[in-house]
Every structure is written in structure tokens, then in C-alpha cells.
Amino acid sequence: EVLAPGAVSVHPPTDLEAARGAGLVVYDRVTPQRLPVVPTLGFGSAWPDTDLGERTGRERIVAWNRLHPVLRDVSLSSVVYDRAVNLPGDDTPGVTVLAESASGPVITETVGAGVRHIRVAFPLERSNWGVEVGMAIFVAQAFERLVPGTRGEGIVRTTTDPVRVRASADRVTATGPAEAIAVRGPDGTAALPPLERVGVYTLDNATPSTVAVSMLNESESMLTIGDAASLGATGRTTASADSGRRELWPYALLIAVMLMTLEYLIHAARARV
Predict the structure, then answer these.
(1) pLDDT over 50 at 222, yes or no
(2) CA within 20 to 30 Å of 221's CA: 69, 91, 124, 157, which one?
């Protein structure tokens, strides 16, 4: 309730329409039959249509991605739990493992149709994480990851992300540096294709009414480096055949061998009778 930008309501697992109209759905020991078209956060919640079972026994988290926005400034070394559902790993398309134990993934993230979903394998009540300081930090950062702007930060989308908005009419139009059109779906939302040009767009018949698109990213920009570059108006192309990291140890080894050989020759010359 402190972090949520709007009203919070609690629904039983049997309420299949609970996600309708919500900006974020949190599952507590509940596995939905299918993922909604809004971001979700789950504790002790497995993936729909994936029966991987669960594991019991005292476990600790042994590794986590400290650079990921959700786990930045979060320490998981003291977290202990005794029951967890099995989550898909990195070998599953679209799944990123954020933390793992010796038995498998513990925290994962996936992106589908421009919507993020985060899962924590264990229920909070079967762990000591609820009394850890890192738990509050994790929830705040997870909310900001799933629903940008929750903490008052600017909502900026990259040039490769689809833009999903709430539609008040059958068609949503985005105008700005470029133009795009989307049709409202049965859930009341519309998904605009990635807006490839940077700038501020105005949306008709949609909430929010403006969208900012930039090259910003939590780790690095979306720019890629080509194998060749065109110089000048003539379009002359230059390319590098030897790029990347260069090892220096062969040169150091060669210098060491030359010094040892020189030392041996000087010693042999002085020692000759």
C-alpha cells in the first residue's frame, strides 16, 4: 500500500478476473492459470502451465546478480528458506535467473509482449527474508522495475520496447518524431510497436497521454558497434581486421627469455678460463 501508486485490493485465488484493470498483480503462494497482460510479482508462485514441482529442506541463496536493477544494494547472503517451487532456468527462452541456490533458480525475471514478470521461488512465511532490510529494498526496486514511475522517477522507454497503454477507444495513435497506431485489445489495453525514434510522443485515446522514448538503459545503451564505418561524403569504408582485447603476456615472456639469454652469455664469458 505504501509503494502502490493506486488503490490495493486483495482477491482469492479463485477470482480469475482479479487482474482486469490492475496495474500490477502480486501472487502470494498462488500460481495463475495464465499470465495476465500486466506486470506480476510472485512469492512461492510457479509459472503457469509449468509443473516443475517443489523442493523442501533448508537452503540458502549462493549467487545473485548484484548489477540487476532489482537486486542492486540488496544482500541475500543471510536469507534462509525451507520450501520453494522449482522455476525455469536460463535454458528457457525469455527467462533470466537473478538469484540461485545449489538446487536451482530462486529469483527469475521474464519479459513477454513487453510485460515483465518477476518470481521468487519461496513464500515469505517460509523464510527469514521478511525481517531483513533487503526485503524492503527488493520490493521497492521490483515495483519500480515492473511499474516505472512508482517511486516518482521518470518513465522512459527505450527504442526497442513495445509501449503498452490503457486505451479509451478502439484505436490509439502515437504522434511525435514518428507515428504509430495500435488497436485496443479485449483487456482494454493497446500495445504500440517499438518507437524507434527518440523523443516525446503524444498519445490519443490512451493513458498515459505522453510517452518519452530514449536510448537510456539500466546497464548500457542500445547502440551497437558495426564492423565497418563510412568516412566523409565519398562513403569510403574502413574496417579493422584485428579488434578486441589484446594479450600482452607473450611479449613479456619474450623479453624475459631475451634477458635470461643475455645474462647467461655474460656469465659464461666471465667464467671462461
Answers:
(1) no
(2) 91
